[in-house]
């Protein structure tokens, strides 16, 4: 929500007026002076929307402030050109409405268009949310990173490295929305206030690493050539792509990282396929390269890659992981019920590469149990299990 500054208004005053943490107001207005605002300039109030309201008989600003549980001065602020003592029936005014409902509806087939629409809506209501494009998919779709928090502990989580694991994108976006609701409404999640986590941690999310693959699984082959002909050929003419793991060129993005990639290259498919083909070399695919460059740029303290399925957490790689990795994974296991697995006969994954290069905690979390794509009937259960993991990733030292 946007408001126009009056004489004497400050960001601190707006924080008190709308009962929103000052840090969130500050982070929503980074180019504004903390102590001296210009009269008439625009300021963003996070967690609110403007509701157009038609005045009914007997109503006043005071009556509406009581009904909608907002300060009467907040209503004055949004209606500076209106005489509050001369309201007429049928007149349209602006009301500040606190957003207490989720924007993201994760329990659905969650494709790229759905995610991008949700991100735009979230950014409008929560302007302290930061988004950037880290690269583009093979078909040119921008791959967004979302960041939240101002702390020094840098945590990263990603989803949908594989197209038929799109439920992980819905899980991460639902968590993002719940986080935003919790900090703006000053409400706990699992008896935990999230504002201290906002102040001590910096969370990076790439909810959908492989948008082309997700759209292929959910929406069928694209109209664009040569991609339509290629995927139909690789899928042996079958129009059902529900088992497709690779990107649109038939390369498995989680077999693309330079962590003993040669082992996977020797024993996996030697040409593009619906799954497992590691490519002709590491980091040939733009999606994997974008994740590599982001990780180098951000210098994360820990990373979580969400996959499906198996209800397991892989946390080691070639015994290069630090001691704290085990402490953290035990907490992940406690809050989720998932089984920790240290070593696995698997290489060239994002988590493997991160541990190898940074010697910091990295995790692959296999959400849910069954056959991919996991059914939406599991969504609530999977979300509750992984909500604990995501919170723990922020509060664990």
UniProtKB/TrEMBL annotation:
The UniProt entry's GO CC annotations, sorted and at most eight, read:
extracellular space
The LysM domain extends over 1-45, 51-95
Q: Domain Peptidase M14 spans what residues?
A: 108-397
Q: Sorted alphabetically, which CDD domains does this protein's record hold?
A: LysM (cd00118), M14_Endopeptidase_I (cd06229)
Ordered alphabetically, the record's keywords are: Hydrolase, Metalloprotease, Protease, Zinc
**What biological process terms from GO does the record include?**
proteolysis
From the UniProt record, which GO molecular function terms apply?
metallocarboxypeptidase activity; zinc ion binding
Q: Which Pfam families match?
A: LysM, Peptidase_M14
Q: Which domain of life is it from?
A: Bacteria
Sorted alphabetically, which SUPFAM superfamilies does this protein's record hold? LysM domain, Zn-dependent exopeptidases
Q: Which InterPro entries match?
A: ENP1_M14_CPD, LysM, LysM_dom_sf, Peptidase_M14
> Catalytic residues per the record?
366 (proton donor/acceptor)
| Cofactors demanded by this protein | Zn(2+)
Family label: Belongs to the peptidase M14 family.
Q: What is this protein called?
A: Peptidase M14
Organism expressing this protein natively: Bacillus taeanensis
């Amino acid at each position: 929500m946007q408001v126009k500054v009056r004489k004497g208004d400050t960001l601190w005053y707006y924080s008190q007026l709308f009962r929103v943490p000052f840090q969130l107001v500050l982070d929503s207005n980074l180019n504004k002076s903390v102590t001296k605002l210009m009269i008439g300039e625009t300021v963003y109030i996070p967690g609110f929307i403007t509701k157009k309201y038609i005045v009914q008989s007997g109503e006043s600003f005071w009556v509406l402030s009581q009904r909608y549980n907002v300060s009467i001065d907040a209503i004055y602020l949004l209606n500076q050109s209106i005489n509050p003592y001369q309201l007429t029936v049928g007149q349209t005014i602006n009301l500040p409405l606190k957003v207490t409902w989720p924007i993201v509806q994760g329990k659905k087939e969650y494709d790229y268009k759905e995610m991008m629409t949700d991100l735009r809506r979230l950014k409008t209501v929560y302007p302290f949310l930061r988004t950037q494009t880290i690269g583009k998919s093979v078909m040119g779709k921008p791959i967004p990173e979302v960041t939240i928090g101002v702390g020094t502990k840098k945590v990263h989580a990603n989803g949908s490295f594989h197209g038929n694991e799109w439920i992980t994108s819905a899980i991460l976006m639902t968590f993002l929305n719940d986080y935003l609701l919790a900090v703006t409404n000053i409400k706990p999640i699992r008896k935990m206030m999230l504002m201290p986590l906002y102040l001590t941690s910096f969370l990076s999310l790439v909810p959908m690493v492989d948008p082309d693959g997700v759209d292929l699984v959910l929406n069928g082959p694209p109209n664009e050539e040569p991609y339509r002909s290629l995927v139909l050929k690789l899928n042996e003419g079958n129009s059902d792509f529900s088992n497709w793991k690779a990107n649109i060129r038939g390369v498995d993005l989680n077999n693309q990282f330079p962590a003993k990639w040669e082992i996977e290259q020797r024993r996996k498919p030697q040409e593009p396929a619906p799954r497992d083909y590691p490519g002709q070399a590491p980091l040939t695919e733009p999606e994997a390269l974008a994740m590599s460059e982001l990780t180098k740029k951000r210098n994360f303290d820990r990373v979580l890659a969400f996959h499906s399925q198996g209800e397991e957490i892989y946390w080691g790689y070639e015994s290069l992981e630090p001691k704290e990795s085990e402490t953290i994974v035990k907490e992940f296991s406690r809050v989720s019920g998932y089984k920790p697995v240290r070593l696995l006969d698997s290489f060239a994954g994002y988590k493997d590469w991160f541990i190898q290069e940074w010697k910091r905690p990295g995790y692959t979390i296999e959400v849910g149990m069954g056959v991919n794509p996991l059914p939406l009937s599991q969504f609530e259960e999977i979300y509750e299990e992984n909500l604990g993991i995501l919170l723990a990733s922020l509060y664990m030292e």
